[in-house]
Amino acid sequence: MSRLSIPLLSTRSDDFYAQLRARLARDSVSDLQVENSVRDILAAIRAHGDQALLNYTRQFDQLTVSNVGELEITAEERKNVLQRISPEDKEILELSAERIRSFHEKQKQHSWSYTEANGTLLGQQVRAMDRVGVYVPGGKAAYPSSVLMNILPAKVAGVKEIIMVVPTPGGVRNDLVIAAAEIAGADRIFTIGGAQAIAALAYGTASIPKVDKIVGPGNIYVATAKKMVFGEVGIDMIAGPSEIMILSDRDVNPDWLAMDMFSQAEHDENAQCILVCADADLLNRVHRSMEKQLPHMSRRDIIKASLEGRGLLIQVRDLTEGVAVINQVAPEHLELAVAHPEDLLTDIHHAGAIFMGLYTPEALGDYCAGPNHVLPTSGTARFSSPLGVYDFQKRSSLIYCSAEGAAHLGPIAARLARGEGLDAHALSAEYRYTK
Question: pTM, whole model, 2 decimals?
Answer without folding.
Answer: 0.93
